[in-house]
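User: tokens in, sequence out, please.
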């Protein structure tokens, strides 16, 4: 009787099911960067209302065909592990595709059904696997920017010693104005008012004069007399204003420069007199402002035709770029991914994406096409109107590996036999926008048997030769389409669409128009009081897309190589009010799948969670940015470390941070300091407290959430290097040095946390993390070393910044939270509780009420 009962229990069906199978943290990846990847899965109950379930074992099989598992059988492994199960079967070659499945065993030892097969393929792991060469088309890049637009201008001011000056200039605009562009800056600040309406302003920083504002004034000016006013202020020292207004009338243009013919007054009510010339443009202390005329070359088109004489078994297309790349086969875009291959330090590495394109090919004649744009490599990045951060010659490197049914193989790769041209994408830039003229389309250019003319030989070779590595992140993709909630007319043939939600992305146009008719799309996050779009916060980011109709049937268009941060779209030139379907917003983000939701009975909390989700989507576009709208969009380290744990609660960000943390290590200084941004461009290589600590905090948080010990081990040497830098930077008793860079308590209004408190708190907190990381990696001796250092820094903090009544120096929420979060205040004598009480009291004083 007992034997029969025992057999019945053993034979009972399993209570678990393996789901969500991933290889290297991605579902069915193509081209992973290792021949022995890690496998993982999730567990689900086999039937409803099953509880207290756990895995006690697993079995993984891997095969070279969908239902032939001939490469590896792990056998039953007694383990509750569902992550980081390393493939340990027969050696896999570059490009090889495999199928795998998993079976799990529950708390009673009962087996689950096998999962559905999942796949992965190995990337091109060795340099000799690459047959492609870097190719591009340099002829369009010979377009030169105009001469320095400030040449001949004067630095002007009002009365000597005045910190605030009002400027005025009237001008007459002739009929037929086609374009007006104002470039202006002041030391320190200014705001520009045209015909009574504020149009632009400097960015509020004391060095704003280094970043001239470039603003389109075409619609702000009218035929006849116009008035320009400028309010300029200076905190002390040399003060001056310089500017240049270019008016274009068809083929002719006129320039209006700051000079003695401008008028200046000491106040709004003071009489105006001729402005005083402070310096000739180009003289000290400001010098020249650099090339401010926009250089926006067209996107390049590359193509190659080839013949396949045999039936195809499998084909994989690999592509990378120094710039941005879109790949096409036989007339179709092969993926909805955007901004491939992502932003890296191109001097060190560039990633390659792989795609299974078996179904895209045909027996006989085929064609492969590639579009390339400037992107992060050559376009405008960050503040200051700077481009060509890595180089000016954008390139693509493409390889199509094809296996035939008879087992033979062939490769089509980028080489001198490809052809190049330009087409309808006249401009494409992240910050400035995209200009598309559908009349210039080369229909069929990515199809076989194309008969187009004007194609030239490609340019060969590249300015740099980085390592080409398989992509290890999550690609950028569209994830939502938003239609306007309201559409309001704000001017002649000008309408503003309110999408009801701030997002990062672009507009999709689907409309009809006459040949040559141009639609202008501008983007903004907020409106002026009169309902027009507010663009002052964009600074030098132009954020304008234009589309010129070819005429005829309905035309559909969206940009390839730009994005904007916006809630409002201004549509001009359609000739009528657009419908909600003719112009829509397309939201984009790195493809980080949702992992959890928070829904409460409190609408405010629900809105807060929604805002956090949308903000994360807007700012996780290949790198963790600070903002998606203005001339910045850099990978700020402080933002990343503050948000990494929250991000992981909302979406799966393991691959996203896997990629970015390599970039962060690439930007680490030789002495161990981490920078303010990664990739490191425009901003400083000295991150300072809280920003630099991202190099320690982010790997640790990813390990805590995902159990990714390999990621932690990869970054542990750099984490240690940073702590050793902090020891050397600090005084012998571990206090901050006399001077150091610190952003401070960023964005906290009227609460100035002392930088020394932030410095020492983060020094302690990061040291404790490194100690814990050493323990997790089995490095017990190093863990004890960093434990001792943490205790020393902790004692220094307590001695210098915590009073006997629990007050932390600065008496701000930030100071208390850092001290409590990093365990810098002991329990003895109730000191920790006193500090916590002071924090609660300050929070409640500001209108929040806590139950405990």
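Assistant: Sequence out:
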């Amino acid at each position: 009787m007992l034997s029969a009962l025992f057999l019945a229990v053993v034979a009972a069906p399993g209570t678990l099911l393996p789901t969500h199978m991933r290889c290297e943290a991605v579902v069915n990846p193509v081209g992973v960067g290792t021949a022995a990847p890690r496998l993982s899965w999730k567990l689900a109950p086999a039937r409803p209302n099953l509880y207290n379930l756990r895995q006690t074992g697993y079995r993984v099989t891997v095969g070279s065909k969908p239902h032939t598992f001939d490469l590896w059988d792990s056998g039953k492994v007694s383990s509750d592990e569902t992550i980081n199960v390393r493939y340990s079967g027969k050696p896999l070659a570059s490009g090889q595709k495999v199928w795998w499945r998993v079976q799990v065993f529950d708390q009673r030892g009962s087996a689950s059904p096998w999962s559905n097969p999942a796949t992965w393929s190995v990337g091109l792991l060795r340099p000799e696997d690459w047959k492609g060469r870097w190719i591009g088309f340099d002829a369009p890049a010979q377009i030169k920017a105009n001469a320095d637009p400030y040449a001949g201008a004067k630095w002007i001011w009002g009365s000597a010693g005045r910190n605030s000056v009002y400027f005025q200039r009237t001008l007459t605009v002739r009929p037929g104005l086609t374009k007006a562009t104002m470039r202006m800056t002041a030391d320190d600040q200014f705001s520009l008012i045209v015909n009574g309406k504020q149009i632009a302003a400097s960015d509020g920083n004391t060095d704003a004069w280094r970043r001239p504002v470039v603003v389109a004034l075409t619609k702000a000016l009218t035929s006849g007399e116009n008035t320009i006013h400028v309010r300029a202020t200076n905190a002390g020292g040399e003060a001056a204003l310089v500017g240049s207004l270019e008016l274009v009338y068809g083929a002719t243009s006129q320039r209006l420069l700051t000079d003695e013919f401008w008028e200046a007054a000491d106040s709004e009510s003071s009489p105006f007199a001729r402005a005083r010339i402070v310096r000739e443009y180009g003289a000290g202390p400001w010098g020249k402002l650099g090339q401010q005329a926009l250089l926006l070359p067209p996107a390049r088109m590359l193509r190659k035709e080839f013949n396949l004489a045999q039936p195809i078994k499998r084909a994989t297309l690999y592509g990378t770029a120094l710039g941005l790349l879109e790949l096409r086969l036989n007339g179709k875009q092969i993926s909805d991914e955007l901004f491939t291959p992502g932003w890296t330090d191109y001097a060190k590495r560039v990633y390659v994406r792989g795609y299974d394109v078996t179904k895209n090919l045909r027996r006989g004649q085929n064609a492969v096409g590639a579009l390339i744009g400037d992107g992060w490599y050559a376009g405008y990045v960050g503040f200051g109107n700077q481009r060509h951060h890595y180089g000016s010659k954008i390139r693509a490197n493409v390889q199509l590996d094809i296996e035939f049914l008879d087992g033979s193989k062939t490769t089509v790769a980028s080489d001198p036999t490809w052809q190049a041209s330009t087409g309808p994408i006249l401009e494409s830039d992240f910050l400035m926008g995209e200009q598309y003229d559908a009349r210039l389309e080369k229909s069929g250019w990515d199809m076989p048997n194309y008969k187009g003319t004007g194609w030239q030989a490609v340019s060969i070779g590249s300015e740099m030769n980085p390592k080409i590595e398989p992509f290890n992140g999550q690609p950028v993709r569209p994830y939502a389409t938003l239609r306007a909630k309201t559409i309001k007319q704000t001017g002649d043939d000008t309408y503003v669409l309110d999408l009801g939600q701030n997002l990062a992305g672009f507009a999709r146009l689907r409309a009809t128009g006459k040949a040559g008719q141009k639609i202008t799309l501008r983007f903004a996050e907020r409106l002026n009081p009169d309902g027009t779009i507010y663009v002052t916060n964009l600074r030098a980011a132009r954020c304008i897309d234009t589309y010129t109709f070819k005429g005829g049937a309905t035309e559909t268009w969206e940009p390839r190589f730009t994005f904007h941060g916006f809630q409002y779209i201004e549509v001009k030139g359609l000739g009528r009010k657009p419908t909600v379907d003719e112009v829509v917003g397309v939201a984009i983000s790195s493809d980080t799948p949702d992992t959890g939701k928070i829904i409460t009975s409190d609408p405010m909390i629900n809105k807060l969670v929604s805002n956090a989700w949308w903000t994360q989507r807007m700012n996780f576009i290949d790198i963790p940015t600070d903002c998606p709208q203005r001339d910045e969009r850099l990978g700020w380290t402080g933002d990343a470390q503050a948000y990494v744990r929250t991000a992981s609660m909302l979406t799966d960000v393991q691959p996203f941070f896997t990629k970015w943390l390599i970039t962060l290590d690439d930007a680490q200084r030789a002495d161990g300091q981490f920078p303010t941004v990664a990739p490191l461009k425009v901003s400083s290589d000295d991150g300072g407290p809280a920003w630099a600590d991202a190099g320690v905090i982010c790997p640790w948080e990813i390990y805590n959430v995902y159990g990714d010990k390999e990621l932690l081990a990869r970054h542990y040497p750099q984490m240690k290097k940073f702590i050793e830098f902090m020891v050397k930077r600090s005084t012998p008793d571990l206090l901050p040095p006399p001077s150091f860079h610190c952003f401070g308590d960023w964005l906290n209004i009227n609460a100035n946390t002392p930088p020394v408190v932030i410095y020492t708190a983060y020094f302690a907190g990061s040291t404790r993390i490194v100690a814990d990381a050493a323990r997790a990696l089995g490095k017990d001796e190093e863990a004890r070393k960093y434990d001792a250092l943490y205790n020393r820094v902790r004692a220094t903090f307590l001695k210098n910044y915590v009073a006997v009544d629990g007050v932390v120096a600065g008496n701000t929420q930030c100071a208390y939270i850092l001290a409590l979060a990093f365990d810098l205040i002991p329990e003895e004598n109730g000191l920790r509780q006193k500090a916590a009480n002071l924090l609660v009291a300050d929070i409640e004083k500001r209108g929040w009420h806590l139950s405990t």
